User: Which sequence fits this backbone?
């Protein structure tokens, strides 16, 4: 039982990271119907930004209180990836908006290849390990919960709350939802659609940056290829939850995190990704638009 | 008249001012983008700790390039492009010249004389690189992209896991040949059939899925097959891969095994060289490509091919015409997979070695990119895209002279995939419908007119 | 009327979407050789009836029987959409035209002959090997397409993409395409919607000639009363998923229930009409056949 709960905690942590990335996928999909394949690499970029900021802080000031360091890392990483995604959207995706739907997908795949190789070229191909930043572990009823896990789950929860508030209770969120429903009509009603879409990209990237920072802190290492697997898992999470749905993305992320940690704990770790992908396939076969997705009605 | 000139001068002044302003913004944005990733580099010191190396000079170059590029783009390139577009629109459509009209015939003729040409130019041993790295590799991608074209380009089903069938073909050949000693000529069709079977097996559960859901599940299937290949070590030897795969023979008459008595070089009294085998493989790949093209062209004019294209245009209308969309989709998956299987077994026989490394998602993405960049459905466009993208990035390996410019540490290969990715973006933004955006009709009453890309749909994938 | 031979019999058809009863216990017949019109105000459930007949929706309840020339009967509610066309020989068009816009006009008509050609090509294999049976069938299919191009007055545009045609031509092409499947029963969903008077006239002509030359029975949904009154032999009126009138155009036109429900009355006349209906209902209970 304790073992099981332990795995639940681990899965929850992992799932929070996936959920944060998945929101970026789901928002961009919701608003312009495009799978932003480069989002996983934005996440990796966020991790690298956090890494460089951390090293910069250490080299400039020696020791910095961990809480402050983490805060600065998250903040800079968010600004950094936000700027990147803003430029990417403007230069690579906007010219293709409204054309043929596969074109932006291919552009996004190209962007993903370019981004990971950009980091490989500028930062080198090797693993980048950092010393453990947070190492306290608490024992609660025989389950060990690390401070890292608590931070990850808390940060995720706080961000989701802020986010949920923005989307549901601010003029910006209203503009986003309107653009999602009908871009042309939204524009006619005076919503700056381009700006709204840009902000959506920036918001998604900022969340991915948080996920990247958490990932770096949790695993203590990052490498230029790290965008792919978590990116695909997060995309899987977004689809599993029902792409376009924010709660769906979080739910999907948590599910994938739990499936992974439980499968690794009780079966073989080698096949954990096979398990994840198989469950995705099975769920979609029975529920073709994901768990919380709106079913697509076939209008005849 | 004077009035006009003064306004143009004024406009020019405005343009310059605008260009300078935009260049300034671009410099600021570039500074923001690159300050962490280019200005600083994470490196390991002797203690294996990460340290930061400062590269402010390089950062300045990046920022300068962004500013100058933006300035040139706003001040010169855009007005020039606009002017060109206007003159283009005004000029009547040009008649296609001889080269364009007979492009495929010329291309095939060139490919047939390509190996002897290379041998003539570079000698037997040095031609190897050109025949193998360029010729055979590009042909494999052409074959794969033509196979995927049936699924994505014709039937409009977005498949992000096409590499799975490539893997099935490669491993079928590798395993059946090393465990049972079956010959290439028997295994080639078998690999195709097995891959087609897998196409049906994987196609069946996804029949109801549309668009991005279909894309992610096919991606998942591709990953599952790769992960199984990695982890099922008892059979596949895992990441080590299977090596020592038997070579193909010329229909069993001449062999390319050095020890065999009917060795090709021995029989003809030629000096021993691996180039003959590669040349043989080149022609084999060419033949397989021709077969793929022939079958695709024929299929398009058959009811099944028309049903695929109709499926891409409107699935509901298809059903209203009595077309069984389930079997139509499955045959598309199976046919596409079959060509992937052929390409896979060819790949295995060419490398003599297969490992899961060769079947990562990136391969699927590259093949899909070739199909879309070429223009969905167009065989010629796809072949051109494969040549440009694969041949182009392969050329980067040859850019040794760049070392003289950037210093001996410079490895052009490192930039290969970076440039590949950027090229994908640039080509898509420039030509969203690919090199050949129009569609050739499969039947006509009076004259064959290409259908403009703006009418064709891309399917629900 | 009673001696007529029904080609399609709809009995006690009901269709529920969640809490909404889109069709409620609907029964009617369409007779062989007739042009039957299904009319009713917006939201009366006409298209739903069509979708049930052509297999796109599975009705909640009821039976739809298609009786072919040879006497063979098909229970349409048990068949999937493509089987309805392929086996029962019921073809349809759509309210929001669904052409293969990237295929040429000719290709659209060839796709409609899929099943016939599939058989002739030996399920692709013989055709791939270049057997003459397929070549012959392919030539025949082009002849068939030409026949319908001619009828629909589209021969000049045969090699243009279907998406490039003007609206009225697209409507005619969709009908021609449905006819290329070789149906005995043709269902048209608002064929005259969006047509100008001249195109509307050409459409009437096309429908009449379809009936005359091929003997195909037609069921159509239509809003344009001039089309309905002019070409249909038999009219069924729906309101809120229920049949309110059924008979020849003359009969329906004068049915006060129809006048009140559909043909529209001035606001101040509503009271009057309702009173009138009540009187009729009291004096003549039962159906209005």
Assistant:
């Amino acid at each position: 039982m304790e073992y099981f709960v332990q795995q639940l905690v681990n899965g929850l942590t992992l799932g929070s990271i996936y959920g944060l990335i998945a929101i970026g996928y789901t928002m961009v999909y919701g608003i312009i119907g495009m799978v932003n394949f480069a989002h996983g690499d934005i996440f990796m970029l966020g991790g690298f930004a956090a890494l460089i900021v951390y090293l910069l802080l250490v080299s400039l000031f020696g020791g910095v209180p961990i809480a402050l360091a983490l805060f600065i890392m998250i903040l800079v990483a968010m600004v950094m990836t936000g700027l990147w995604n803003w430029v990417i959207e403007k230069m690579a995706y906007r010219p293709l908006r409204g054309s043929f739907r596969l074109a932006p997908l291919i552009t996004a795949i190209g962007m993903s290849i370019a981004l990971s190789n950009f980091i490989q070229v500028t930062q080198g191909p090797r693993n980048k390990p950092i010393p453990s930043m947070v190492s306290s572990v608490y024992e609660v009823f025989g389950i060990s919960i690390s401070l890292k896990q608590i931070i990850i789950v808390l940060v995720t929860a706080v961000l989701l709350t802020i986010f949920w508030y923005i989307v549901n209770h601010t003029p910006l969120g209203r503009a986003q939802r309107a653009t999602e429903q009908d871009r042309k009509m939204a524009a006619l009603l005076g919503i700056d659609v381009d700006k709204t879409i840009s902000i959506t990209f920036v918001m998604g990237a900022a969340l991915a940056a948080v996920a990247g920072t958490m990932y770096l802190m949790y695993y203590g290492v990052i490498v230029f290829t790290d965008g792919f697997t978590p990116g695909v898992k997060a995309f899987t999470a977004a689809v599993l939850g029902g792409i376009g749905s924010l709660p769906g993305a979080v739910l999907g992320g948590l599910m994938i995190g739990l499936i992974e940690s439980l499968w690794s704990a009780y079966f073989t770790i080698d096949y954990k990704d096979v398990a994840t992908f198989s469950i995705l396939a099975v769920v979609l076969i029975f529920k073709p638009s994901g768990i919380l997705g709106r079913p697509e009605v076939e209008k005849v | 008249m004077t009035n006009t000139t003064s306004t143009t001068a004024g406009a020019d002044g405005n343009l310059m001012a605008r260009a300078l302003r935009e260049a300034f913004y671009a410099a600021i944005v570039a500074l923001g983008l690159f300050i962490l990733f280019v200005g600083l580099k994470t490196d390991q010191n002797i203690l294996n700790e990460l340290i930061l190396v400062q590269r402010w000079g390089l950062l300045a170059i990046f920022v300068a390039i962004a500013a100058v590029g933006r300035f040139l783009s706003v001040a010169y390139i855009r007005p020039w492009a606009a002017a060109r577009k206007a003159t283009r629109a005004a000029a009547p459509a040009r008649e296609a010249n001889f080269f364009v009209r007979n492009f495929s015939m010329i291309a095939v003729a060139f490919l047939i004389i390509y190996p002897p040409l290379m041998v003539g130019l570079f000698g037997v041993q040095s031609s190897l690189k050109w025949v193998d790295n360029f010729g055979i590799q590009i042909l494999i991608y052409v074959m794969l992209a033509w196979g995927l074209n049936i699924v994505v380009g014709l039937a409009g089903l977005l498949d992000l896991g096409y590499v799975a069938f490539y893997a099935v073909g490669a491993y079928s050949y590798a395993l059946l040949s090393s465990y049972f000693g079956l010959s290439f000529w028997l295994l080639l069709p078998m690999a195709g059939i097995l891959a087609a079977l897998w196409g049906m097996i994987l196609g069946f559960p996804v029949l109801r899925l549309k668009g991005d859901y279909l894309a992610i599940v096919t991606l998942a299937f591709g990953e599952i097959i790769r992960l199984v290949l990695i982890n099922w070590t008892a059979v596949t030897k895992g990441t080590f891969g299977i090596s020592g795969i038997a070579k193909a023979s010329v229909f069993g008459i001449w062999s390319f095994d050095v020890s065999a008595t009917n060795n090709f070089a021995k029989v003809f009294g030629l000096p021993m060289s691996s180039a003959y085998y590669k040349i043989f493989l080149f022609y084999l790949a060419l033949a397989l490509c021709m077969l793929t093209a022939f079958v695709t062209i024929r299929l398009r004019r058959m009811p099944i091919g028309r049903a695929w294209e109709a499926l891409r245009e409107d699935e509901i209308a298809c059903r209203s015409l009595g077309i069984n969309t389930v079997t139509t989709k499955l045959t598309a998956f199976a046919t596409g997979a079959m060509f992937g299987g052929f390409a896979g077994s060819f790949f295995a026989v060419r490398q003599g070695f297969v490992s899961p490394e060769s079947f990562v998602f990136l391969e699927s993405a590259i093949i899909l990119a070739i199909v879309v960049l070429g223009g969905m459905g167009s065989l010629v466009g796809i072949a051109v895209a494969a040549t440009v993208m694969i041949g182009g990035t392969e050329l980067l390996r040859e850019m040794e002279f760049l070392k003289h410019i950037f210093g001996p540490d410079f490895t052009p290969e490192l930039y290969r995939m970076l440039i590949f990715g950027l090229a994908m973006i640039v080509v898509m933004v420039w030509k969203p419908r690919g090199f050949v955006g129009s569609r050739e009709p499969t039947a006509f009453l009076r004259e064959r007119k290409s259908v403009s890309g703006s009418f064709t749909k891309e399917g629900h994938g | 009327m009673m001696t007529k031979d029904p080609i399609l019999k709809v009995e006690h058809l009901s269709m529920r979407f969640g809490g909404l009863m889109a069709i409620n216990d609907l029964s009617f017949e369409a007779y062989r050789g007739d042009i039957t019109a299904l009319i009713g105000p917006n939201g009366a459930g006409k298209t739903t009836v069509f979708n049930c007949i052509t297999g796109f929706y599975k009705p909640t309840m009821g039976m739809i029987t298609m009786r072919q020339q040879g006497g063979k009967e098909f229970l349409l509610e048990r068949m999937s959409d493509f089987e309805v066309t392929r086996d029962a020989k019921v073809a349809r068009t759509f309210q929001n035209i669904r052409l293969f816009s990237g295929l040429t006009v000719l290709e659209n008509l060839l796709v409609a002959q899929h099943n016939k050609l599939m058989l002739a090509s030996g399920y692709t294999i013989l055709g791939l090997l270049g057997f003459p049976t397929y070549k012959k069938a392919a030539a025949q299919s082009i002849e068939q397409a030409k026949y319908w191009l001619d009828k629909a007055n589209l021969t000049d545009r045969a090699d243009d993409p279907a998406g490039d045609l003007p609206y009225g031509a697209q409507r005619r092409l969709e009908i021609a395409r449905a006819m290329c499947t070789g149906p005995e029963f043709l269902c048209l969903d608002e064929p005259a919607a969006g047509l100008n008077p001249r195109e509307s006239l050409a459409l009437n002509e096309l429908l009449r000639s379809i009936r005359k030359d091929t003997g195909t029975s037609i069921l159509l949904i239509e809003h344009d009363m001039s089309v309905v009154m002019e070409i249909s032999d038999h009219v069924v009126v729906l309101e809120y998923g229920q049949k309110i009138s059924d008979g020849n155009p003359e009969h329906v036109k004068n049915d006060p229930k129809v006048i009140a429900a559909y043909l529209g009355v001035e606001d101040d006349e509503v009271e009057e009409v309702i009173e009138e209906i009540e009187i009729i209902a009291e004096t003549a209970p039962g159906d209005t056949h």
